[in-house]
Design brief:
Butyryl-CoA Dehydrogenase, subunit A, domain 3; 7 helices; alpha+beta; single chain; five-stranded antiparallel beta sheet
Length: 259
């Protein structure tokens, strides 16, 4: 019973941690509060390499008036390109580099939101510059392939969303002091690990390809990995590690004949 109790505690701790990390990944960019606005899946900046004033996206295109005069202006309406874009799973927010809550605008929340960075830049560009922005990216550039990026990040969203729910269920199932409940918790942890792991892997692959593509294009647009991506990898590890202690709890736990 001591072994069973220890394993239950370890399994609960791991699944609780996984659930919390997965939920944090879900709330990224949902609002402008200090927690949500500092969690994102990906970041795009358009002002060039930090510390340099000569290689911004605007300088690369050799145009003026590309950036939004009001960094809190509505997205995707031709109001000007923002200095920084943060993507969550449900929306994106654009604003200044300092991420001031009063100098950014977030789009509406949408299930299955798609990561399409270059499409966002084109839509944000002033009307007279949209064609020039659209033609600036190489034809074979991954970061400009809206269909490819949108399709896979849409699929990854649903995997991560369902995986987060399953992670919560695996945590709750462990509270039932019965060996079959522990077996259920182990199975749920396995399913949760698979869903979150595959979803995080898809997003990671997209992030790597986008980053390399932007570096090769040298447009003054930079990519950075979001912390929510690492939250999901942490959630995957927690769910995967919880499988063994839950199975041991099942073997050492109580059946109905023990009551």
């Amino acid at each position: 019973m001591v072994l069973g109790g220890l394993c239950i505690g370890i399994g609960e701790f791991l699944t609780f941690g996984a659930m919390v990390l997965a939920i944090l990944g879900q709330i990224g960019q949902l609002s402008n509060n200090i927690v949500a606005r500092n969690i994102r899946m990906a970041v795009i900046t358009t002002t060039g390499t930090p510390g340099s004033q000569t290689d911004s996206f605007q300088d690369t295109l050799n145009v003026g008036g590309l950036y939004a005069s009001n960094q809190a202006a509505e997205e995707l309406q031709g109001n000007g390109i923002k200095e920084r874009y943060d993507w969550g799973l449900y929306n994106l927010c654009g604003g200044d580099l300092q991420r001031d809550a009063d100098a950014r605008f977030c789009t509406g929340h949408q299930f299955g939101h798609r990561f399409q960075p270059y499409g966002t830049l084109v839509a944000d560009a002033p009307d007279n510059l949209q064609q020039q922005v659209a033609q600036a990216a190489p034809q074979d550039a991954t970061f400009a392939d809206n269909e490819y990026l949108g399709k896979y990040t849409h699929a990854a969203f649903w995997l991560l969303f369902i995986g987060t729910i399953v992670a919560g269920l695996s945590f709750l199932a462990g509270f039932a002091a019965h060996r079959f409940a522990f077996l259920l918790a182990a199975l749920l942890a396995l399913v949760g690990a698979l869903l979150i792991g595959v979803g995080a892997a898809i997003w990671t692959a997209i992030a790597v390809r986008t980053s390399h593509s932007l570096k090769d294009a040298n447009l003054g647009v930079n990519f950075a990995y979001g912390n929510a991506l690492w939250f999901y990898w942490g959630a995957f590890v927690g769910e995967a590690l919880a499988i063994v202690p839950y199975i041991l709890s099942c073997c050492a736990g109580r059946s109905k004949n023990d009551y």
